[in-house]
Structure formats: C-alpha cells, structure tokens
C-alpha cells in the first residue's frame, strides 16, 4: 500500500474513532447507561423500546427490592409472597379491582405503548436474572414482571393512594391528602436573564412508592431529564431542549363516597331495588413454615362503585374518577417528546391523569398553569357538599362524565410574569387573581385561598415571588431554601408583648428567646424549637382573632384569639424544652435531624403548615429528637437559556438497594442548601462518570 494512502486511511480511522467516542451511543447502534457519580442513569437507547428496557434495568439496579415488593402488592398477592402483615393491602387492592382492571388497561393500550411496557418489564427481569445476588431471595417470587404489573402499580399509586387512599376510605373520606408541592414558572418579564424559568419541588414521604427516581432518557427524537415515582416507566416531572413541566397535587374531588339504603338484599336506586354485583375472592397467606392458609371474602359493587363499608341498613360505596381512562403513561410519554406549547397542550388535552396541576415553561418564554384532572360533571352541590357523604338512592347525584380540557382553569403568560402553586386552589396561581371562581362549577375546587390546606405556605410562596421585580436563577435557587415561618410573622407581634406582660418567669424567658429568634428554621436558628412545639400544640383553627379575608389575602389570618390559652401553652412547652434540651434557645438542627441511610445531619426546614417554603415533615424519635420523614424530595431549578441551565437534587439519594453508595448521599448537599448541577451533555457526563453499561 502506498505510504500516502496508508496515512489517509489511518487518518480516516482516527476521525471515525473520535466521532464514535463523542456521539451518543443511540446513533451508533448500541444502548448504553452512563452512571454518574450521584447514581443517576443517563440512558442512550438505540431505539425507544431499548430505552424502556434499559430504564427498567436501571431502576432495578437502584431500587430492585422496593420495586418487586411494590409490584407484588399491586398484584394483590403480597400476603401469598410475604405473610399475614400484607393481608389488608391485598384486600384493598382486590376490593378496588386493581389487578383485573390493569389487565383490561393493558389490552387496550396502543401496540407501541404495550411494547414499551413489556420492554420496561423485560429490563427488570433481565437485571434480576443476571444479578441474583442483588435481589432479596424473598422477593424473587414476584418474578417475572409483566406490562400488566406496571399498570397495576400505576393504578394503585395514583388512583388509590393519591386520589383516595385506604385510610380515607376506612374513615369514609375521600379528599386527596397524599403529598404536597411547590412549583414556580417565571416568564422573561420577571426574569433577570429574560429567560423563562421553572422550579419543581414536590413534597412526599421519604419511603415506599412515594420515592422519586432521577434519570436522563435519550433516544431518537428524545432527550428528556427529570424524575418519576419509583416503578413508573416514564418521567413525571421533566424538561427537554425545548420545554419543561412540573406537577403539584391539586385540591380536586375525583372520588366520592355514596350512602345506599339497603332493602331486600339489594339497595334502593330511583325508587327501585337494585341487586349488588357480588364477587368472591381468596387471599393466600404464607405462614412461617412455608405453608399457606386461605381467607375468603366477598366484594360487592353497586351502580356507584365498590362497597367499602356497611352500617346497619346502610352501605357505603366508593366511586373513583379515571378508571375508564387507561392511557396515562402514553400521555406522559408524549409530554416528554413535545417540542413546543402546542404539542404539549395537545398531550394534556387527552386528560388521562386524574389529578395534578401542571406548571410549564419553555425556551420561547411562555409559561402555563393548568388545573389538570378528571373533574366529574355534577348536577348539584358545591365543593363542601361533595366532601361529605353523598346520597346514593338517586341518579341525580351519579356522575358519569368529566369536564373537557377547555373547561378547566388555565392561565397562559400572565401580565405579572409568574405562576405558582403550593397545592392551593387555582385562583391564586397568580396574584392578584386572574381566574374568577364564579366562572367555574362550584364543585371544582375550594372557593378561595382561605380554604387551602397550607394557606400560610401559599402566601409565603407568593410573597417570595413578589419580593423582586426581576428574579435571577441564583435567587430562585436560594429562595427555594427559604425556611422563614409565615406563622411567626403573623403571631409573634402579639405573643411576645403578651408574654412580657402576663407571664411567669419561664414565660418571660421564652418571650426573650422568641424576640431574638430570626423567625427561620435553619439548623442554627435558636427559638425555632420553642415556637414550633408551641405552634403544633395550639389548635391553629382556633388560634387567630382575625380570619382570612380576600381584601387582605396575603396578610390574614392573624392576631391571637385566646391570649391566656396561648400563654399557658407557651409556658408549658417552654418548661418541656428546658427539661429535654437544657435551654430554651437550643438550635433547630440539634433537635431536628436528617436521618437516611448512614446520614444523621442537622435539618433546616419545617412543616408547610407553619408557612415554611422549605418543607420538612417531622416525627418524634426515641432519643427525644425529631426526624424528617417527608417533605422536600426532588428539586429541579431550570432556566430555559441556550444551552439550558439546570440544577437538581434528589434529597435522599437515587437508590435504596442495600449495597448502593447512593442511599442518602445527596443529603449533605440538602443540609447545606445546595443543588447539584445537571449533567446532560455527554462530555460532562463522562467527566463525572461512575460506571458504564453497554447492552
């Protein structure tokens, strides 16, 4: 071979090698997972089906034991696998018809989506087969996983724990209570960089199916980064090169309890006796010796839904929205693939998700809020009426259809330049309000901010947005970690003078501590322990002398209704704090701890009900401390610049497998109030690479 030709050939091979190294693997016929040093999988699929399979593999590597347990519960066979402690879970799952409905959902899926579900399940099975030592032996009975299992899990989590849940059903209540969130969308007019920005900040328990899983998914025509609830095959909060969105739990009534009058073995409906549909089920229960016993029970169904309780001559049935809309996973997948607002809203208009506000931003500078969900069309009653038990003896109260997308509260590009939601009603998604509740059905949502569950957190969110005419990306990240208590600003100006005037010595000492306190719940804040224990002891529903009113929407409720009671509780709490911790000005972080995996760190943040934007829910522990069990879980701050700028944090880490180094590894960042940079570019990922897997 002539020397010149040889060098040209060598140069060509070198260029090809460089191209191979620097291109996403999806373009050269491989599927690959690049694991970064925080345990986040960056998945490059040679095609979409391979992407889903690799995503199933990745989730199993990070959360395999948890996922198999959750899927076993979603089948309604957990007691068969693991014993009597799961009987109540199986009974609930079977009573709600989850396994059978999941099969029905699977059969009507688009063939493409059906293939993706199968691929995700195959990834789980493949990992478990090739890494048997990483999976607990007691959990292998659940294998193999199928696409039906995935839909059963989705249904159990979304419809029967978020929309309604076992505890509520048992108490004959149906208001959605699982989890909360903060969300902001900032328009260019309110942004220091003139780029739209988005803040995603869900608050969920730090355990079970509430855990978030962070990932990047790349395939032909897709490059999305975000998080999903563990065991779910698509991202629920995400952004791509064009747009992004987040979700918050909205106050939506998608489930109702009906009271039936029993007669002649059936129930009365429009003056006639209707028979129950009756089904017998058998639960197998594993015993400690490996043998099984069986428990049989009956499921009764009426026109309204499944019977959940009987009392004398009454029966109570549960009706849940969205069980006839099986394409939630397809809708979320289309949202992740959207490249502009029109495509994104086209996905939303399918209304396959039964709840969740949508807060959106994009590279063109547009921002959007939608009170998303399947809102039943009702012939009578307002929000408060439908929170009670509904008469079931008449077809006048039976809903069968939902509001169309065009009939839901929606705001696009408000003039003030921002949108927010903290689980408050849609009317305060921007402020002053641009949505008039009188233009919507009275049953759609609570009528005002005053009826919000965490009104003080909502008010704090709005005030943080109003503090600056222009908000920078850095300011948005900093304000996410604001732990100032709105309740303290409302009440201390009344409580401290009263304590100085009327209190015993312990009350006077308490008043001095509260005066010196910075009104925050940072780890080094002194006075926060005293105030928070006092606030959680006082009945807040009876605390304020001046209730909320729409003319002072951001500064009411306020004032002390019962000064003597407030002071008596303050003195009692102060004595308890001094006894337990030796001082009234003990620091917040000494008493409230971030404990997860091997981490035990001082906490910053407080319950949202006290008006903290940095939300941590806490429970008491045996060592006379408090431990965080819920609250800030996944955080993403995104600026739609060119290129997109983003920082994230999966607070408790991106894994639960016992041998993983990523259980709790991000908690020190959270304790310091820091977010991680997002690595989306392949060079950045490889510069922070922990391991590589090629399929």
Question: What would the keywords be for this entry?
Answer:
alpha+beta, Glutamine Phosphoribosylpyrophosphate, subunit 1, domain 1, Penicillin G acylase, beta-roll domain, disordered N terminus
Category by helix and strand content: alpha+beta
What's the CATH topology label of the largest domain?
Glutamine Phosphoribosylpyrophosphate, subunit 1, domain 1
Distance between the termini: 37 Å
CATH architecture of the largest domain: 4-Layer Sandwich
How helical, in percent, are the residues? 25-40%
The chain-level mean pLDDT equals: 94
Q: Give the percentage of residues in beta strands.
A: 15-25%
DSSP helical segment count:
20
Number of domains: 4
For the biggest β-sheet, the strand order reads 19-17-16-8-7-6-5-2-1-28
Describe the largest sheet: 10 strands, mixed
C-alpha geometry: globular
Number of strands: 28
**Radius of gyration in whole Å, from Cα?**
27 Å
Q: Output the CATH homologous superfamily of the largest domain.
A: Aminohydrolase, N-terminal nucleophile (Ntn) domain
Would you kindly provide a brief summary of this structure?
This protein is of the alpha+beta class.
